[in-house]
# Entry
Amino acid sequence: MTTDNKRPLTLRDVSEATGVSEMTVSRVLRNRGDVSEKTRQKVLSAAKELGYVPNKIAGALASNRVNLVAVIIPSLSNMVFPEVLTGINSVLENTDLQPVVGVTDYQPEKEEKVLYEMLSWRPSGVIIAGLEHTEAARAMLNASGIPVVEVMDTDGKPVDAMVGISHRRAGREMAKAILKAGYRNIGFMGTKMPLDHRARKRFEGFTEALAKEGVEIMDRAFYSGGSALAKGREMTQEMLERSPELDFLYYSNDMIGAGGMLYLMDQKIDIPGQIGLAGFNGVELLQGLPRQLATMDACRLEIGRKAAEIIAAQLDNPDTEIEKHVTLTPTITFGDTLKRR
Amino acid sequence: MTTDNKRPLTLRDVSEATGVSEMTVSRVLRNRGDVSEKTRQKVLSAAKELGYVPNKIAGALASNRVNLVAVIIPSLSNMVFPEVLTGINSVLENTDLQPVVGVTDYQPEKEEKVLYEMLSWRPSGVIIAGLEHTEAARAMLNASGIPVVEVMDTDGKPVDAMVGISHRRAGREMAKAILKAGYRNIGFMGTKMPLDHRARKRFEGFTEALAKEGVEIMDRAFYSGGSALAKGREMTQEMLERSPELDFLYYSNDMIGAGGMLYLMDQKIDIPGQIGLAGFNGVELLQGLPRQLATMDACRLEIGRKAAEIIAAQLDNPDTEIEKHVTLTPTITFGDTLKRR
DNA sequence: GTGAAAGCGCTAACAG
DNA sequence: CTGTTAGCGCTTTCAC
# Structure
């Protein structure tokens, strides 16, 4: 503990306090090179005593190294992304890299801005959600000269590396499972988000697989904002009033799916006999609900982990041969709301 | 769009491309000082063409200014903290400040480490959750010489400024409401987190207010890990089997409270007649559940906003007289699980 | 309006 | 093992 200082301390202050050269102080503080145990201790205790905190700004400029990994995601309130972050963290914790998070709110222009801001700090790598970016953003990523991993989605061409699942395939698989279970009158509910490309791709894959069997979606609805659980309720009620012949409801995420499920249970509707249900994501929350909603795991943790590993490996040795296109395979959980066949 | 470069571009590159001095290029790019419209355009287009991204590291070192606000929170998976972040963001968006988030996992030593890391980037301000920190962390905050706002909790003495609610009072208020409604056999369930000081303080306030009326908690249980909703179910079942005479259950957060509620509904137990329930936080999720759980809003958005305002105001003018101790008052939502009296 | 010089606090590279 | 020198890429300051 020291008295409050107006000016933050510098290496020089520690150097003067110890009589050791700045350079040696720097070596001690970074654990670099050989320093005698005696001076080591002297420096360490002085630094601690003074309350010295190194200036990474200066260090980064001098060494041309910044141990930051920029992580750019659409949202923090989705639960999906914090989990990806957790995966990233779990890997980076064992390195000297640190994640720095930027949020885009699903807006391409904001993504571009956030990316620019982050790149201006010269991070060592970038992990960014999705494959769709503005022209300028893609150009920046290309020009950055650092490892770039695009995550979540593998339906497209990455700038550099990519890790994720095929959402198109995920939609198709769910459609197949639903058809196989015998449902034919299918409704869809999702977010009104033209910019959520992954939800869009799932939807496309879904309708495509239905079409292959001559089935067409009977009703659909989109929402935006509000509590997803509450929206799921409302929309489900409305849709069933509008299209009472529906026998299956596919939701673009588990939260609205859970809302729908709770509504149907209130109405004493037989699930999955009269109506089947499925969501997407495999959120942990589902486990506490009265019934388990059918869903599909998005492999979020694994995606984060893999992405971080790719960055770390490249940084460790730029010549390492690593798999740059990693496609994970989500599995269906049938739960209690989709007949198993 | 340019060809890929190994070396990132510098001001000098733009300077050479335009024939304008580095200094003037810098002025244009920062919108500082007077520059003729002609050179302005020339520089701007060249910079864009080349794909120049300024190096903030160098800029920060030279100007001794970093437009970053360090935000240090215990967790991202709690939903509470992302909301505080949203509040912070909403204010900082209108300034040139940028939040940078660090996560501590409720561990004091990790908080200390994260704080050290962040301070070493010389941010312009710090927003940190809670009032309890290690000795060293407090010393760093003191020595940093930048505005510091401790958020969430106001039961204690801040290093500099603080914004939050009194969790002790929140616990007391809820206890009073419960007693007033006529419940006497009260059980408590919460997280097994000695380090979640806010949950602890709520519990203390709660028992204290009960004690004042001669009431003692009849049963209690603590959990850790797992899906909160599922845990709420399990624990509620166990507790009621153990203590069937309970007529009220107070949960330390809404998620386990919701789990408990769903369990009781499964059991066709009369809520709030036979058993009343209450949680804490006012999470949006609750709105979609079959019944609305009684809860108390933690003012998360407002806390974030106010904290960011304090930082921004201090930075804008260090001599501004501002309120450094802001205590917000949470309100009880009775919902459908706590009798109103 | 524009430019030249002098650092910001640190580390790479070398010399002892 | 320790110290010296020369920048990193930018901005501040001052001169023109």
Notes: Chain B touches chain A through 61 residues (CB under 8 Å). The mean pLDDT of chain B is 94.
